[in-house]
Amino acid sequence: MEIAVQPVAKQDPAQRVKNWDEAFLGYDLETAITEAERCIHCPTAPCQEACPVSNDIPGALALLEEGDIIGAANVFRETSDLPEMCGRLCPQESLCEGACVVGFAIRTAELGRQPPVSIGKLESFITDSQRRTEGFPVPDLPEPTGRTVAIVGSGPAGLAVAEQLTRRGHSCTVFEAWPQPGGVLLYGIPNFKMRKEILQDKLAFLRSLGVQFICNTRIGDDVTIDDLFRQGYHAAFVGTGAGIGGHMRIPGEDLQGVYQATEFLVRGNLEPDNLPEQMREPLSIGRHVLVVGGGDTSMDCVRTAVRLNAEAVTCMYRRTEHEQKGRVEERRHASEEGVQFQYLTTPVRFVGENGRVTTAECVRMRLGDPDDSGRRRPEPVPGSEFAVPADTVVLAIGYSADDLLEETTPGLHTDKRSHLIRVKEDYSTSRRGVFAGGDNVNGADLVVTALADGRRAAEAIHDYLQRL
């Protein structure tokens, strides 16, 4: 039987720009089962091989086909601590769905070439359904081991370490520099991509297992790694991510109204009580918003600006659309919501009045010779200068790791240029008892890769604690 791909219901663009709800409304049970039936259950499961946490996707979908949603959800939870989130945030087209045989090798007489199975949307449906009806499955915890672990950072890597070590009987305390736990999952993901209740439910579950969260505490500033060991912790995991926004280093970048992406997103998406005191003033963005950069963070920023009622929102990228990183789906959503794209263009100067930005002076670009990475290097086109109005500018041009831990943790080996922490295969660092994983090791990457690091690091930390 030939089954066509089942479209996922989503809000009309004209309606969704007026709210902060998720764009996708999700599957219902009947449609989800029909979509799952498109899976041909490959013996080698290339989708599973392409998943950073090796989810048994065919196994989960087979249970869904039988109507066993809880069983399907538990299959996902065997290998993933955050399946509801990964179903929404993973770039499935370059991971599991990109490897789906249905999408690249199956052609039928009736339907022709079909898209891959909608694995991400099914993962969200399955695990959302379980969470809403039965909650998270509660594990039988072993007797406490008496070992305590300090986890620095409450993003995906830190949460995975906390859950996995708690399941093994260790006591975990998570330290977070921001006022609320969640890391990038709270402060970097807008509601229209993932509603906050999903994260809050997960945090409540972890607290119910005994995980403690201490916020407004910046390790390396308020307390050091050495202080944590002096306080009695037996091991530490560093999962602070890569949250330092990139700079263009052009005139006018210090004007009021020029924001780093993180500050713009958190002030635009979160209630003031969730923010540091210096970020609690409401945003005043004006009529014209310019976002510089081409990745998924840029799409988060332009779509946030639309919902803040900007009249004109432009995404400016110095390369071509073909070379643009990030999800095609996100760019499509932004375009549907009225965002304009200017490719092969970059600002060279921001001009202001009374200390606030009003104009971006720009230049057209062309692609020259390849750089060291093999990508053709953008270069300015002589005589192509022009100006655009800009009441607000958002710089979404990449992230790097903070150097604070490097400076305050003697003997911690890092890359001196990128400040990324150097780790061995078991995620241990040059400091005994200190482990690290996620973006502060790999550079800015995916939620699921940080999650995978956290799970593997937890295994190594558990082995280390058993040897003490």
Q: Can you characterise this structure?
A:
With 468 residues, this protein is α/β, with parallel strands linked by helices. The protein folds into three domains: 9-133, Orthogonal Bundle (Fumarate Reductase Iron-sulfur Protein, Chain B, domain 2), CATH 1.10.1060.10; 148-243 and 400-467, FAD/NAD(P)-binding domain; 247-397, FAD/NAD(P)-binding domain (3-Layer(bba) Sandwich). Helices cover 34% and strands 19% of the residues. It is built from 18 helices and 20 strands. The strands form six sheets. It has a five-stranded parallel beta sheet with strand order 7-6-5-8-20. A five-stranded parallel beta sheet has the order 10-18-11-12-13. Strands 14, 15, 16 and 17 form a four-stranded antiparallel beta sheet that branches. Strand 3 (107-108) and strand 4 (112-113) form a beta hairpin. Helix 5 (69-79) crosses helix 8 (119-133). The chain is globular. The model has no long low-confidence stretch (mean pLDDT 95).
